[in-house]
Structure formats: structure tokens, C-alpha cells
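A.,

Following up on our hallway conversation. C-alpha cells first:
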């Protein structure tokens, strides 16, 4: 039986989701995501020419370091994505490995999504799509089998929630003609200013363990918990900053020999927020390594998250 649904704004902010005892700040964001890839030129061709990332820096291979590239979007020098080459790594198998399921590029408007879709259609690139009720999304696969979602959010006043404060998701067909019409006549010119990494989605081995790490210890709110085999968590009432699922349970954990997520940055508003999250993780029994970049915690499936203050990320 479907729950009785309400407009998202009809509930007060404090009634959205299930909150841990100590919550992450509402103003957090996803920072840089680092991927390990097999062939850097092939990956750059995809992330630049197909997805529209802007190259910020290219670091050639040296005796001490493998080749890598830093990518962003128009208008700012924030590093959204780092590609680190490791020749010979295995592509992601069809069923997936425990670790990254997909990373998600958030475009500012529906028109931007329409221009992107028209662009990839002109290239003949295979694209999946879906309407998630709170967002409209497309899905592409990079040369190593890593899935990338490109999406736009609907305004929050168009979202729906249950009386219990659960944000409602959907898996409906995308109205592709309407999205393409929204593009107008303007050409695609790469990822526009205002593009961010909106969320990440992970394959985990156990939802209870995932909840213990990301909700109880790190401090994300649970916002969607009725999906089969999945849990969505966020801060600030967002539909999800992280998706956690067990759809590849039984698969191996991604290793150094696989194309995979190396680490991702969680940007918090200040050093006090970073310190509080670090202490929560340590009190819950998770090891936190103090790296030159900042504290880095590892979840039960080897997914590494670096906790950084906004001031450090912007410098």
C-alpha cells in the first residue's frame, strides 16, 4: 500500500528524515572525487568531450607519481574530479564491485540537462535515463565501466514526502522530449557554471553496517529508507548526498587492481565541524588517519572519505 504523500514544504525542516544524535551541518557539500583509471587519455576523451568537464591541470607520469588530471566546470577553479592513471587496472564488472556504484554530476537547470542530452545524442553515445520525482537523470558509462549520472533537481516545492518525513523517490520514464525542448536553441558548451557533484552512490555489503558508519557515526540523516535494498542519507533535507545499497552484495571489494573510487571529499563549513565528525567516527570505533589533506576515514568496504573545512577546500 502506497503511503499518503504530502508536499515537501508541508512538513517543517526538523520533520524531514530520521536524525542521528549528532548531525552533520546542513551546508555541507560533496568536494573532489578521485578515480583510478586504466588509460588517462581515453578517460579524458570521455570526461572532457562527452561529459564536458574542463581540464584544470594535467600532471605527467614521473618516477614518484602516476599521470593524473584535475577537472572542473566553467567559471570556477574548484577541482570536481581527479583521474589517476594506473595502467592495467581491470574494468568494473557488469555486476559491480563493493565501492562506487556511481558519481552524480548536478547541472543547474533543466535547460542545461536538455542541452547535455542533445549533445550526447549527437555523439551517438548510449545513455540511460530516469525520472526520480525529485530529479531528472541520465546515466553514462566511462571507458573503465564506471557509471556517471548527469541530472538536474526539481525545486523542493515539487518534492513529496510521507507523513513520517521520508522523501519519496521514483523510477519513472524520463520525459525526454520535454527535457530537450527546455534546451532551447543554445548550444552545449561544456559543464556550465554552477555545476557540482550532487551525490555519490555506493555498493555496500550490509545496510546495517552502512547505516552505522554514515548515519550513526558520521552524522548524515536518513531520508529515504523504504527502497528495496537501499538507504539514502543526506544533510539539510536534500534528497540524498549518499546512496547506499546492497545490490552487489556478495561481490568483491574494489582493490588497487581495479578501476575504482580512490577517495572523496566531504566539505564541512569549518574546522569545528571537521573535528566533531572526526571524534564521532573515532568514538564509534572507526580508524581515522590524519593525512596532510585532512582527516580520512575508511568505511567497512574500503571507501575513503576525507573531511575538509570549507576554507581549506577553497584555498
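Then the amino acids I'd put at each of the 315 positions:
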Amino acid at each position: 500500500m502506497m503511503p499518503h504523500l504530502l508536499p515537501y514544504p508541508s512538513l517543517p525542516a526538523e520533520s524531514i528524515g530520521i536524525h542521528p544524535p549528532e548531525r552533520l551541518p546542513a551546508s555541507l557539500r560533496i568536494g573532489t572525487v578521485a578515480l583510478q583509471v586504466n588509460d588517462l587519455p581515453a578517460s579524458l576523451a570521455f570526461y572532457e568531450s562527452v561529459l564536458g568537464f574542463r581540464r584544470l591541470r594535467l600532471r605527467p607520469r614521473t618516477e614518484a607519481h602516476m599521470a593524473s588530471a584535475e577537472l572542473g566546470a566553467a567559471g570556477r577553479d574548484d577541482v570536481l574530479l581527479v583521474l589517476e592513471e594506473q595502467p592495467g587496472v581491470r574494468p568494473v564488472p557488469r555486476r559491480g564491485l563493493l565501492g562506487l556504484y556511481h558519481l552524480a554530476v548536478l547541472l543547474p537547470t533543466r535547460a542545461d540537462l536538455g542541452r547535455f542530452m542533445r549533445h550526447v545524442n549527437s555523439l551517438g553515445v548510449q545513455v540511460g535515463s530516469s525520472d526520480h520525482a525529485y530529479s531528472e537523470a541520465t546515466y553514462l558509462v566511462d571507458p573503465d565501466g564506471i557509471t556517471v549520472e548527469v541530472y538536474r533537481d526539481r525545486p523542493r516545492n515539487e518534492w513529496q514526502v510521507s507523513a513520517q518525513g521520508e522523501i519519496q523517490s521514483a523510477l519513472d520514464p524520463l520525459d525526454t522530449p520535454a527535457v530537450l525542448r527546455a534546451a532551447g536553441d543554445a548550444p552545449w558548451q561544456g559543464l556550465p557554471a554552477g555545476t557540482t557533484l550532487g551525490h555519490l552512490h555506493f555498493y555496500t555489503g550490509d545496510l546495517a553496517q552502512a547505516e552505522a558508519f554514515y548515519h550513526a557515526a558520521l552524522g548524515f540523516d536518513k531520508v529515504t529508507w523504504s527502497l528495496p535494498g537501499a538507504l539514502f542519507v543526506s544533510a539539510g533535507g536534500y534528497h540524498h548526498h549518499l546512496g547506499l545499497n546492497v545490490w552487489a552484495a556478495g561481490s568483491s571489494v574494489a582493490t588497487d587492481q581495479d578501476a575504482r573510487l580512490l577517495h572523496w571529499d566531504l566539505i564541512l563549513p569549518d574546522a569545528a565541524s571537521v573535528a566533531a565528525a572526526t571524534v564521532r567516527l573515532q568514538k564509534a570505533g572507526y580508524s581515522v588517519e590524519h593525512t596532510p589533506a585532512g582527516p580520512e576515514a575508511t568505511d567497512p568496504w574500503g571507501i575513503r572519505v576525507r573531511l575538509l573545512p570549507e576554507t581549506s577546500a577553497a584555498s
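Residues 108 and 146 are 23 Å apart (CA to CA). Curious whether your intuition agrees with the design.

B.
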